[in-house]
Structure formats: structure tokens, C-alpha cells
Request: fold
Amino acid sequence: MPKRIVLAYSGGLDTSVIIKWLKDRYGAEIIALTIDVGQGKGLDEIRTRALDIGAKEALVVDAKDTFVRYFVFPALRAGALYEGQYPLATALSRPLIAKLLVDAAREHGADAIAHGCTGKGNDQVRFDVATAALAPELQVLAPVREWELKTREAEIEYAQRHGIPVPVTKASPYSTDENLWGRSIEAGALEDPWLEPPADVYAWTKSLDQAPDAPVYKEIQFERGIPAALDGDAVDGVGLISQLNDIAGEHGIGRIDHVENRLVGIKSREIYEAPAATVLLKAHKALEGLTLSKDQIRLKDRLAADYADLIYNGLWFTASHQDIAAYVQSTQRHVSGTIRVRLHKGTCTVVGRQSPKSLYSFQLATYDQGDQFDQSAAVGFIQIWGLPVRVQAKAQLLTQEEGPLYIAAPEG
Reply:
């Protein structure tokens, strides 16, 4: 029976109810730990709420810079998008929160850590696996997996019965999570994949009819794959992402409606808002197109999917992650330059690119005067390139009774 528990406390319905439930179940001291990864609003209120509910201590840690530097930007450099759509905002914050939970548990002599994850979601895996890697001696408690409160309505009634203040009602049952890199919304009416998301789901992005009619242009400077300046002004990662969230969100950019494959084997409909992530991922990809070779790009694209899966599946603290991250870091040596984007009515379009390390040569690409490409060399190149095609055609394809195969016809 744990005597002291560090709880990852968000201030929402689940973790607010958990404080009371853990105290009743174990009679343990509860230390509520809130990690600021960019949600930023109401942190003092959250701390007060934890204490009012019954936590012995309520800690708030500002981890925004750490989150951006060691989690967001490595994922950006890798081009990590889960299933080609989700920028992994929530998933990226979980290993950091797990690390800080472990640190707090050791500092305060706790026997266990606790989280508010359900038994159907991905976060339970991320927290449990990360804790097992970092501190296998700590017990991990997940009350939502075992308690009798099987619906959100039951949790709301429990909270009301015990005087627990929570910002959720039966009329507005959305479950949300947000940090600098994005905002996720699920549950409630969104569980019907046929239903268009109601307008009240969105908080960071304007609808297309409300977005400005005039486009805006922004220039993003990268150094070794890391955003370093916006419109020529040097800015730290937290500030740059915050500015782009505001600007791109104003223009309706970053809405994602995705039915994704959860690690636990089910499909889930998720709504995301990720204005800055959408812009930066597109700009970074464009700069790589200018500074990486074809082979580098193709290998990196394949590894980007593996990297996204690794993050999504809770395997941050693994040797495989270290190996892929080492390759990604190597690819970013020359990914420096400036990308100009056009933001308008929900669309981010790359309209300009330049780099001191560019592999694009105007003299080789142009068809006008100054063309230095030796077109006469193409004849010999084509002869060598097409040699295996001609050999196989002569030996196999042209000798078939039905004649040469112009298309791959179905058998039979």
C-alpha cells in the first residue's frame, strides 16, 4: 500500500476526482504535480483546486522550454506525423511528464506515481512504459482503469456529490488536452465519425468564413533544422511557436479531423488544432527539399513514419529512439535557410525558399540563357540507364506469343 503518491494533475475531471479517490482508497498523501507544457492558463487556479480537494502538496513546474527543445524540435526535425496527419502534441508531452513525475517521486520520497489515463487510450501505455524504463521500483497507479466510475457522467456525479469543482458539465462533455504544439479534443458528440465537429470544439483556429480575406506572409529562418527567427527577428522556440499559433490560427490553419489507429487496437475519432505545427512542419519539409539529396529525403521519409510510431506508442526512452534520433540529427547539418509561407483561409502554402547550403542550381535548372547543363551527355546516360530494360525486353518480353506487354494485365 503506497503511503505517498505523486499524481500527474491536469485540473480536469479525471484527475480531480482521482485525488479524492486515492485518499479514500489508500489513505495516502497525495502530491499533485502539474506540468506547464504550454497550456499556461489558470495554473494558480489548478494548484488551488488540488489543495482544496485534498492534496497535501500541489506543485507546478514550468517545462515549456524543455518541452520545445528536447521533444518538439527533435520531432519537427524528424518530420514526425502519425499516420501522416497527427503532429503528436499530446504524445510528445507524455515522456517529459513521466520523467518529471519520477523526479518528483524521488525528491519527495513517494512510493508510487498516478495518472488519469483510461484503459482504452494510448497515454496509459506512454506513462507506464516510460516509468518502467526510468524508475522500475515505482508503482504506477491508474484509478480510471479500475474504479467503478465507468462513464464521464458517473464521474461528474461523483464530483458533484463530493463537492469537487471541475470545469466539465454533462452538456459539454469534451475531453481536451493542450500544449504549445497542439490541442486535442475527443469524446461527446465527436464519437460519431459522421458528425461534423460542432463549432464549439475549436478554440485556437477560426473557421474559414471568419478568417481574414487577405492573406499574410511569414518568413521562417531555420538553423540546422531548428526554427530560429520569424520575419528576421530572432526568437526562442517557445515564443516562435506561440506567435505562429496565434497568427496561423487566426487564418484558420491547423484543423485536423482524424480517425486514428490507437495502440490498444481500436480506431478513435480525434480532433486536433495545431496551427504552428502545421506551418513549421510544412516549412521544414520545404527546406529539406532544397538542402537534402534525393536519397536522404527518401530514407528520412521512411524513418519519419517509424519515428512517429515510436513517439505515439510510448517508446521514447528506448535504444531504437536513440538510433533514429542520431540519424535525424546527422541529416540536419545543412538544413539552414529561410522559408516564406502564405497563410490564407485554412491553407499554408510555401511560396519562397532560400539557403546558403542549397543543392538547387539555377545554372543547371534554367532553360534560358546561362544554361550550363550539358544536354549532349544525356544520350550516353540514357544508353546506360536503359540497358537492363533493353536486355530484358529482348530476352523475355518481345518473344512472348501475345506480343510485347505494354501494361500489366491481370492473370486469366
